[in-house]
């Protein structure tokens, strides 16, 4: 579960488009087969998962047009005699594979849920097996840093984004222009219909909560239950509000790490001034003297260093983060250069530019945002989701821009769950969405840390299970105590 994924994997096969049958949008049966076991995977782990492909329109606004194959996976209820129905899991990211969640990631779900539900997920359009967005790997590798420090760099980023946009469209095909979450909402309902279900239960995680929110707006009568975990706020907000919220929640999680290190003798930096050490590491990265935490042979930049640390706050991996910073302190400057990739590679961040309207019209406007973020955040001055702004500079307006939710008609209120100290989807987002939902939503607060809470807190896990199984909604204001991260 994550808000941002990135990376390059060459050699992705593009799912081909097919001519649409006359009944393209009518409910159709799914042909289930055992899911493929990849090399080096444990067959026992994959055993029991079933995979299928559902043909859906490239553009739901033109449902009789071309279709493509949407990859779906499921595991049927282990105790058919107590089966409740279908639980659809909405993957995060953008970029997470719901098919892989079902194939190899079922520890995400309790035994109680596996007994009572058919658990289904999918690769969202443009991701993994569902006509992935792919682009020239060499061009993707040239992506400018979001640390834009001059008007020339700002203009160059716009030129690059437009070149990459055309390249990805060429290599991906028509689906590229229809990867917004409004389209994915229609895909989810097509899955529901193909499964023969009148209603589904839905559990969305991180970016997948936006999918659940928008599905509830369009199809409230088709939801039996709705869980939104690590809540993404797609409500109306400006570019500055989005960046401020993202920077503040990342900084809060880093501060929690520092506070732990000050008290825990298990921290390898116990007794050290971590703020000063971090400032020095950022300075070394700015001079090209620091190895990248994820690729030790190449140089880190202040942004890639921040991004690597940000990801370690997801669990959170506090002890490992302290060890990393200590190693970086004495690290030698890297001497290698990243290899120039060939072929095609996925661009999993492309949906941001369809789902978020975060305009920055001039370099002066961008520079003012950056200065404010640096002034207001002691350590993580460059929020990793700055990519959601810089990657979309110069591109067409989002087709699914932010707006407050207007959900009416849920039979059972949605259950929201969020950690107080979530580095990616901050608690303020959860309270904002809860406000938008009003009587249609109840917020369960996990008083601990990390991105996601279902598997971190037995209290949260039990509350969500009880809600999904028996539709028992916690009292408003319910909290679950923090569980200290393992050191």
Describe what is shown at a glance.
This protein is of the alpha/beta class and 487 residues long. It is built from 16 helices and 12 strands.
Question: Notable features of this structure?
Answer:
487 residues, alpha/beta, 16 helices, 12 strands, 36% helix, disordered N terminus, signal, hydrolase, Serine_prot/Carboxylest_S33
Structure, explained:
The model is unreliable at 1-26 (pLDDT under 50). A ten-stranded mixed β-sheet has the order 1-2-3-5-4-7-8-10-11-12, with helices on both faces. It is of the alpha/beta class and 487 residues long. It has two domains: 33-131 and 173-236 and 403-480, Rossmann fold, CATH 3.40.50.1820; 135-170 and 237-343 and 355-402, no CATH class. The relative contact order is 0.14. 36% of the residues lie in helices and 14% in strands. Helix 7 links the parallel strand 7 and strand 8 (223-229).
Structural class: alpha/beta
Strand order of the largest sheet: 1-2-3-5-4-7-8-10-11-12
Order of helical and strand elements: EHEEEHHEEHHHEHEHHHHEHHHEHEHE
Assess the beta-strand content as a share of residues: 5-15%
Pfam family, one: Abhydrolase_4
Keywords: Hydrolase, Signal
Family: Belongs to the peptidase S33 family.
Organism: Kribbella koreensis
